[in-house]
Amino acid sequence: MEEQSIRVEERQDKKEKPKSEDLIFGRNFTDHMFVMDYTEGLGWHNPSIIPYQNLSISPASMIFHYGQSVFEGLKAFRTENGDVQLFRPEKNVQRLNQSNDRLVIPPIDENLALEAIKQLVAMDSDWVPSTEGTSLYIRPFIISTEPYLGVAPSHYYKFIIIMSPVGSYYKEGINPVKIAVENQYVRAVKGGTGEAKTGGNYASSLKAQELCEKEGYSQVLWLDGVEKKYIEEVGSMNVFFKINGEVVTPALNGSILPGITRDSVIQLLKHWDIPLVERRVSIKELYEAHQNGTLEEAFGSGTAAVISPIGELYWEGHHLVINEGKTGDISKKVYDTITGIQYGKMEDPFDWTVKVEKNSKVRQ
Amino acid sequence: MEEQSIRVEERQDKKEKPKSEDLIFGRNFTDHMFVMDYTEGLGWHNPSIIPYQNLSISPASMIFHYGQSVFEGLKAFRTENGDVQLFRPEKNVQRLNQSNDRLVIPPIDENLALEAIKQLVAMDSDWVPSTEGTSLYIRPFIISTEPYLGVAPSHYYKFIIIMSPVGSYYKEGINPVKIAVENQYVRAVKGGTGEAKTGGNYASSLKAQELCEKEGYSQVLWLDGVEKKYIEEVGSMNVFFKINGEVVTPALNGSILPGITRDSVIQLLKHWDIPLVERRVSIKELYEAHQNGTLEEAFGSGTAAVISPIGELYWEGHHLVINEGKTGDISKKVYDTITGIQYGKMEDPFDWTVKVEKNSKVRQ
Ligand SMILES: Cc1ncc(COP(=O)(O)O)c(C=O)c1O
Ligand SMILES: Cc1ncc(COP(=O)(O)O)c(C=O)c1O
User: Fold this and answer.
1) Which residues carry this modification: N6-(pyridoxal phosphate)lysine (chains A, B) (predicted)?
2) Residues B282, B232 share a domain
């Protein structure tokens, strides 16, 4: 495929940027967005960076009715010397295409998508905040736009990238959370869409999430949809447990999202020679390990928080307090290393970061 | 709740209507649409009938990312004397609220929603076609519109109703279809969103649907997501089997949509003293019944086709031809009765139809 060049339409009236301390996740958006259209027969075409603006879209658009959509989430970080860099963006672009395949959405050109992310970040690089722990959240997504009420794959799509500056996840230092095991509702099941990043998975999670928050827990720990015995993942995070000196994480089984942070954690642990195994983990095993004192640590992994230590697990009347409710050594070491690499404070032995050249490739 | 009155803004430049023979499902839309907004704190407000038009909506709107949405589908029919009537619309409005509950969307006022449907149909009643078998398809739906990237229930929604004139489903008379049992992909699972009418269920079905069409089948017969043994439903239809003189349909188990046509079929069969039971039905039972000659009839039920006889079931290499591939007696009788009632050709002993008064309640 010949590489398409990205048309750029620059905004004249730049928006006012929120102050670093006022940054709330996902509420403010930068000056520009990327848009590319798909039309059956023509393929993906007209990649453009344009001023951030509303979409004008038919009420019959399939996205409003049959949920055919996929998305991604990644971040750009400002390093101490002022550079801007991305963390493993090629992984997000690959995963977007894996999600596309499950949702019957035509694949995108991964190089073009990467280039679009880089150019858009370069164009709005003033929006990448520089206070400790802040970053620019990047949201690529694809929606089905054909105005048609039949249940069928759409013949038209829009691939869009929007960006939002975000504050520090841990304003008062990395902090353990309380998580509740969900016994009634199910997020995903083998043969379903659990391993794809598609809206329906999140829509179906809202009910359980709402109920768990009412009980004072911050997120839900999902069990498998078939036997309701095996650990899947937490809200928007994959999950790790240290049991008797060994780190265990649920194996990718078709209903779990293959997290990029998860993969980074696994690579780091292997690099450090810390025992790590991907396998099925039952809630009963965790309960028993807790009872006999071998459940030593638990943490979630995801782009938003990087690492979220789990201080307490609630399951059927049992409050399992883990590591006295404090952040464990491995959680801390992994968190410090990944964020160290992301902000350019530590060496990057895996070549995970990708520099964004300010306006380098922007053609006008 | 005090009933809100519906504001009406009439279109001046009426669109050209497609000819009866050119009607394709879900492609043409009438002159007007209904829109009502929800804002946290204010509730549902500003119910309005306005000219059919595009929505101007933020690319950060939650519907594009987390799929929080619900919809309904019902029809208006033109009777022989020119009246327009709806079929059990109160059931659709009730089910919309059941779906809302699962998707954490604030409930709508069912009376107001019914009134909105009636007024909109009255306003665009010229769009209800009159050729045999044609109708006006009505699509109420709710989408989450808050521009926010956090995974949480939205604080803003839009309830919209659009309408599309549709041609006859069976141009050459009611006709059996071939259906393939799906063994790999799963539509829904207990604890998931299967019993709600929400986009994600349909998005997840596209892949299996595409594969089955490639093999020459018109729709997929879904098995349960847990054991992959029990019959759930067909594409956009519930399903019935006549085994050894008794009609059997899968019981509502939490992962099947409670179809309104399904309920109508059940009421009719009971009315006629035809043995009917709602219970679990395994694919193995159907296979064995076919082998010993007691699988006498099979049909799907749904708003689009009313009744869709199943002439062949494909399962793991077996082609189960049912009733010699012909429409069965019960399928035919149920089809004739429901459509007879819908088009006002037969008596309506259950009070299923609701007349729409032309412009009766339209306030301008
Ligand atoms: C359901 C789910 N699981 C896991 C993750 C973690 O994935 P990643 O590490 O790629 O952010 C996310 C968030 O992206 C998610 O939405
Ligand atoms: C998944 C599913 N099952 C069953 C049905 C049949 O329901 P109804 O008879 O209310 O149209 C539909 C269509 O509405 C559907 O989408």
Assistant:
1) 197
2) yes
Residues A163, A252 share a domain: no
Ligand 2 atom nearest to B256, measured from its CA: 3
Of the candidates A23, A163, A18, the residue with the CA atom closest to the CA atom of residue A86:
A163
Q: A29 and A102: one domain? A: yes
**B12-31 tens-digit pLDDT:** 999 999 988 889 889 999 99
Ligand nearest to the CA of B255: 2
Q: What percent of chain A has pLDDT over 70?
A: 98
Residue B273, class by beta-carbon neighbours within 10 Å (0-12 exposed, 13-18 middle, 19+ buried)? exposed
Residues A180-202 pLDDT 10s: 999 999 999 999 999 999 999 99
The CATH number of the domain holding residue A52 is 3.30.470.10
Please give the mean pLDDT across all residues of chain B.
Answer: 95
Q: Which residues contact ligand 2 via a Cβ below 6 A?
A: B 73, 233, 236-238, 257, 259-262, 301-303
Domain, as residue range, for A273: 177-326
Domains: count for chain B: 2
In a domain, B54, yes or no: yes
CA–CA gap between residue B317 and residue B13 (Å, rounded): 56
Q: What is the pLDDT of residue A364?
A: 37
Model pLDDT for residues B209-256, shown as the tens digit of each residue:
999 999 999 999 999 999 999 999 998 999 999 999 999 999 999 999
Whether residue B279 contacts residue B251, with contact meaning beta carbons closer than 8 Å, is answered with yes
Give residue for tokens 């009406």: B8
Q: Is A346 on the interface with B (CB under 8 A)?
A: no
R_g of chain A computed on alpha carbons = 21
Please check whether residue B265 touches A, CB under 8 A.
no
- Do B106 and B189 lie in one domain? The reply is no
Decide if A332 is inside a domain: no
> Do residue A151 and residue B27 have CB atoms under 8 angstroms apart?
no
CATH number of the domain that B190 lies in?
3.20.10.10
Tokens found for residue A331:
């959680």
Cβ separation A149–B137 shorter than 8 A: yes
Asked if residue B71 is part of any domain, the answer here is yes
Give the residue carrying structure tokens 């892949």: B207
Closest CA to A242 of A294, A287, A320: A294
Closest C-alpha to ligand 2, atom 1: B236
Task: Check CB contact of B185 with chain A, cutoff 8 Å.
Answer: yes
Q: Examine residue A282 and state whether it is found in any structural domain, yes or no.
A: yes
Prediction pTM value: 0.97
Query: Ligand nearest A202 Cα, by number?
Result: 1
Shared domain for A189 and A144, answered yes or no, is no
Query: Do B13 and B83 lie in a common domain?
Result: yes
B225 contacts chain A (CB < 8 A) = yes
